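Entry type: protein chain
Record version: 2
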Amino acid sequence: MSASSSPTTPLGIAHEPAELLAEAASLEAASAEEILAWVEQRLGARAAIASSFGVEDMVLIDLARKHAPSLRVFTLDTGRLPPETYELIEVVRNRYGIPVETYFPERGRVEALESTQGCFSFRRSLEARKECCAIRKVEPLRRALHGRDGWVTGLRREQSINRTDVAVVEHDREHGGLIKLNPLAAWSRQQVWTYIQTNSVPYNALHDRGYPSIGCAPCTRAVKPYEDERAGRWWWESREHSECGLHPVR
């Protein structure tokens, strides 16, 4: 499939599910480059890459500069990211010459959470952890997606048991019917790293220290060779809960 085979009329937020399914069918077997070219043609600056600056997101940013230069890039700064992530954000700004739109949690909600429950409430229970994620991630994501028609993520099916059914194109009803695209859904970890090395793409230094998945510093650890890629996220919980709410499990 080539990007030129798609119609040029923008989909817009109020597109019909049937049309979305038709688009999904045509993109499911497309390459990441073709998917991004389609995003550029159909959505342009009305779509954005949601980046936590993990290795998959770095592949997307590099590919987008070549195939979808209109795509914006945004990140959610929870206030608890590791220093290595902030360093990489600056590297990206300088190397690619792009702004990185940054969304913070609402100050009042964070102040109330930490004043009443302390700095590590998320370790007490699954419900407490989800409350922290909702304040620091889920609500800022809603603001980040407001007014957009689509968003692009680095989700891959191999990453965890919760992501094995990730589709290339999803109808994101959680955010008003946006188009959510996962161009790397079928990529293996090896494919990701081959692209990084072949194209000299910068990446988070924590990846070299055994962190395949990187989130907030207190909630991320290095993983063992036999563990899945997201085993270091909220490791005190059972594996079926290894999501923060940004990507609801279907």
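Comment: The CA atoms of residues 165 and 250 lie 8 Å apart.
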